[in-house]
Amino acid sequence: MSANVLNIMDPAAGNGGKTHRRVVVCAGTGCMANGSTEVIAAFEQQIKAAGIDVTTEFKPEPTHDLRLNKSGCQGFCQMGPLVTILPEEILYTKVKVADVAEIVTQTLMNHQVVDRLLYVDPGTKKHCKGTHDIPFYQRQQRYVLSECGTIDPEDIHEYMHHGGYVAAKKAILHLTPEQIVQEITKSGLRGRGGGGFPTGRKWEAARIQKSAKKYVICNADEGDPGAFMNRSVMEGNPHSVLEGLMIAARAIGADETLIYVRTEYPLAVARMRRAVEDARKMGFLGSNSFGSGHPLNCEVMEGAGAFVCGEETAMIASIEGQRGMPRPKPPFPAQSGLWGKPTIINNVETLAHVVRIINQGADTFRKLGSTASPGTKTFALTGHVANTGLVEVPFGTTLRDVVINIGGGITDRHGKVKPNGFKAVQIGGPSGGCLTAAHLDLPLDYDSLRSVGAMVGSGGLVAMNEKTCMVAIARFFMDFTQRESCGKCVLCREGTRQLLSMLDDIIAGRATGETLVLMEKLALAVQKGSLCGLGKTAPNPVLSTLRYFRHEYDEHVFHKHCPTGQCKALAKPSIDAAKCKGCGACARKCPVGAISGERKKPHAIDPSKCIVCGSCADTCKFDAVVGV
Amino acid sequence: MRQLPKIDGNGRKFVKVFTILEKHGRKSSRLVPILQAVQEEYRYLPEEVLTYVATALDVSPARVFGVATFYSHFAITPKGKHIIRFCDGTACHVKDSVPILEAVRKQLKLDGKKNTTDDMLFTVETVACLGACGLAPVMVVDEQVHGQMTPAAGVKLVEEIIAKEQS
Question: What's the complex ipTM?
């Protein structure tokens, strides 16, 4: 393979005959689980075997014909491992080791697209060549995630080549703390971790404190089940988080920073540690940060598996080596935080936005999103949607746009898209609420979500199809918060336990009308009587499902019937004689012999024998088994 | 300030703990990372080690025990050789993660209260969310993530480990 052939593809050829041609393999948690490490190794071996001049390192000026690099999470995990060929922007999905040879010969050497590895739009059945063709990416506006998926997260030089650390350097050497805080305040940036508190105001409160010692903590304890935005940013572009952290430190006058990462994210921990190490080697961190004469240090600490540590004061307790229990505010951490010193705690995504604001200015940042919620927000779209993954859209985008248009529609239990399958979206994790089809045109921003009893939270969006029992979902979240309650406030500790047992009663058919009344009363009491965000928001899933799906609760309580058939104790499976073909498949599968009938005639279930396992419904090809 | 008690690393059992404590400057503020390192070494937190850590840091054993029991990552009972973790985050849950957990528990004769097999070969745990929601439902066997699982595939993975152990 000669270099000349490879050059043809490069529109910007002219730099010494070498090109920017690249093979990028996603190495996020999802793709690595699907074998991307082996795919990278296979590429390296096969490319070399084909005689192509290849490098795995970043060089500002291309020195080789081809660069092979891994990237962070591209947010399309379900289709992984993902392989992108640049500059053609071809995206191959679900690439296995066995496919590598074909990509090398077909695409790298002969410039042919391997059709069978392209993404096929489930709606139009069209083969999409690259991200610009795929509806999932087309409707997104990626800023925080813009470099995730192309740059090598473990290479500081590549980050710097893309304008990295310019903002931090500017902030540390040329801006005063007042100027930085002013710019952030002007941008209207609000905390992306859940509360939506204005970042500028938080910083100002810490800046004006007179103290020789101040701290900045990056909250990377992303505990919401069903959310992985922060993980993706840390895995894909760890330096952007670190740079934001440095700017924050300069803004309030702190010389020590700390990144508190969930221990469940080993790859994010490793990449953040590597980023800190490399920044130290470059002199950005250390005793003489950016040559300013001032010290700036950073430490990465792993959490130990407690959801409540995502709360600011609980996180501080955890860093101090205590049980992670919150304390009353005020004093706010900005006044008295870690070791009693002024401390600010910012979410991963918030810090990544800070870099852009310092680079491009507050006005550019405000161009996207709504007036009260400017900028973009990443959401983790999961559950019963065709395209699960990471989505970044401006605030104010409607729920319909995200779930139906980007998500590609609601799927059934077999993964097929069902046009009218939408039932609800759970937003904001265990602290958030459920939204219904009536909210599909609601703009996603802090204030409109709050007005309907939900919250942005950290950005987990779990779509649910019509076969999902909302009482069971409320129970799922209550089980989570009950386990994660730290136990300090009685109403949270005991209240969540009681709410859980009431939900258990409803699901098991033991509840009465009084249960519902009591549950609602207790939910409001827990909200009022808890100190921190965990307790205050713990009843939200119950209250929001009661508000929008009251009829489902009523069905469970008064008619001992679960409309979706998910609650096993209430299920009464039967066979729809009109649909049953009498094939006998269910009878053979039934573990207790509860199904009988003549061949080619409708079968029947004996309720006295049935254990409601649901295997008949799974087996039946004609959907003739109902009620389970 | 009180003088820290003198603790040496000569008690052969605690040499490793001693090294960990030294690395963290024997500061009680480092309790969480210290316990993480200890657990990495012993795979759980034995009671006598917790007492040793408390003495070395000059804090009460109750404080150390309090921290060790607060965080779900810490285990005060021994874990099996192979650790199987089931994600029960929202995305995995709505995509039917529970039947997979139940199938593997049944296979290994475990339940919600008993998490480790008698032969100490397996420990089965649930975790709130691994952040691999795009691959839901997810099962992690010894740090290896397996996505889009089914009960049958879960049982097969465990069978493979058992077969390997027996050969």
Answer: 0.88
